[in-house]
Amino acid sequence: MTMKQIVLLLIGLVVGAMGAVIVANALRARDAYARGAMDVMQHHYGSLREDLRAKRCDARKTTLALTQLRALSNEIEPAVYPDSTPESAFREFGSRLRDALDAGIAAAPADCAALAPVAEKIGKVCEECHQQYR
Question: Quick check: pTM over 0.90?
Answer without folding.
Answer: no
